Fold this sequence. Notes:
Layout: H1 16-31, H2 37-57, H3 63-86, H4 100-119, H5 122-133, H6 138-145, H7 149-166
Helix pairs in contact: 1-2, 1-3, 2-3, 4-7, 5-7, 6-7
Amino acid sequence: xxxxxxxxxxxxxxxxxxxxxxxxxxxxxxxxxxxxxxxxxxxxxxxxxxxxxxxxxxxxxxxxxxxxxxxxxxxxxxxxxxxxxxxxxxxxxxxxxxxxxxxxxxxxxxxxxxxxxxxxxxxxxxxxxxxxxxxxxxxxxxxxxxxxxxxxxxxxxxxxxxxxxxxxxxxxxxxxxx
Length: 178
């Protein structure tokens, strides 16, 4: 088990304040290279542990240089370990079939929209169905029904407004942009 910062013996080559500065510098270095806080803490702790061990075994020329090298190697090791496990699916993939409550809500919404379409004036309903469901252009609808393109656009706008009003909990304010 690696030593924590408060367990480091100050006789290990540097006073405790220096180890705190080293730990803070290593933490910034590692944090700049990964966004996982658990990895940052593990790498810094393991790096400090190895630095303390090396400082007891031999005289270190640069504690920071060795610390950065150890931290970089530990980050590579963590990445390799994580990528090895990432290749294996942790659990069975979720089914693509919608949940029963979503199916029920969808059926209710379709029923509401069918009722709203049935309540529309026939011309508005015909224009809206041709444009939104059948994909006809406004110009072809206007030509087929003997309307102006502007009238077709107004029927579509009013039809969509009717459908939005019919949907519960989905009423939009005039200034609401999505």
